[in-house]
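quick q for whoever's on today - can somebody do inverse folding on this one?? i tried earlier but teh output was garbage lol. tokens:
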């Protein structure tokens, strides 16, 4: 049997508990993601994707429930858990005044990577994301797509076994998007890295994911292979976007429907 990389047991996060602005961001989430799997986590703005990433990467504490990374509890064994993880966060930027190499060196040192290994790791990551020619230029002179690629390289420092990618293809052109997809696929299929991919990019989700999970208002409302989700939920000749719209539409509030 394939090893389980990520498992959650009724994982929940409530922000501002007991206050007027209480939000049930993630509710009773049950996930079982196997080693080497690419799992696409989809859902509307505010569905709970980033919160799920923050919980699983030990950035925030769960309100209830639990989760394990390769069998280690994210709360009581967080030091061990963190060693398995790499993350491209949705909102954390790069040091704009540093070059690609300087950004990677700085983070590698912060992560406590053996200094003898840092130059060769950085060299191979720069190559992986195709930034060789610009590696010494300041990041502020990069295009958006180059920055995304550098963020993937940054997430890969320290050879993580599980990669959390929160919107890796947001705001980038089709060519870079394709390149990023190729990088993700290579990591998962050749290095057996597990990828949790949060995205609104349905093409990437459909082409990359072994399975997708659809969150709606913090609840996992569907989970299957992209083909099965499309088969079950899309209208005739529809795609994943169509299926997701249908799923979220069904679950949506009455007054949110048919607004167009
Ligand atoms: N620090 C916080 N404090 C209070 N509420 C929060 C906080 N972070 C997120 N939320 C709320 O939790 C819910 C889930 O947000 P989250 O960022 O997880 O959604 P998301 O699925 O990643 O959305 P997007 O597609 O826009 O990135 C939203 O209602 C959001 O407003
Ligand atoms: Mg998000």
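ok took a stab at it. sequence:
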């Amino acid at each position: 049997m394939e090893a389980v990389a990520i498992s959650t047991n009724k994982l929940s996060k409530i922000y501002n508990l007991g206050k007027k602005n209480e939000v049930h961001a993630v509710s009773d989430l049950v996930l079982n993601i196997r080693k080497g799997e690419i799992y696409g986590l989809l859902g509307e703005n505010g569905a709970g994707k980033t919160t799920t990433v923050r919980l699983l990467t030990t950035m925030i504490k769960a309100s209830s429930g639990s989760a394990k990374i390769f069998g280690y509890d994210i709360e009581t064994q967080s030091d061990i858990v963190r060693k398995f993880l790499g993350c491209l966060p949705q909102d954390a930027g790069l040091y704009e005044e540093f070059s690609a190499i300087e950004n990677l060196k700085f983070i590698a040192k912060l992560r406590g990577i053996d200094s003898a290994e840092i130059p060769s790791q950085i060299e191979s990551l720069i190559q992986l994301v195709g930034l060789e020619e610009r590696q010494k230029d300041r990041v502020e002179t990069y295009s958006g797509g180059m920055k995304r690629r550098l963020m993937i390289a940054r997430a890969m420092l320290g050879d993580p076994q599980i990669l959390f990618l929160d919107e890796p293809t947001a705001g980038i052109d089709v060519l870079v998007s394709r390149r990023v997809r190729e990088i993700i696929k290579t990591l998962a299929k050749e290095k057996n890295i597990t990828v949790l991919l949060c995205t609104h990019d349905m093409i990437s989700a459909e082409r990359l994911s072994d399975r997708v999970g659809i969150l709606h208002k913090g609840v996992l409302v569907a989970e299957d292979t992209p083909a099965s989700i499309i088969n079950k939920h899309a209208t005739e000749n529809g795609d994943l976007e169509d299926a997701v719209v249908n799923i979220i539409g069904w679950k949506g509030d009455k007054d949110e429907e048919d607004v167009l």
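fwiw The CA atoms of residues 143 and 172 lie 9 Å apart. also Residues 1-84+192-253 form a domain with the Rossmann fold fold (CATH 3.40.50.300). so keep that in mind when u check it
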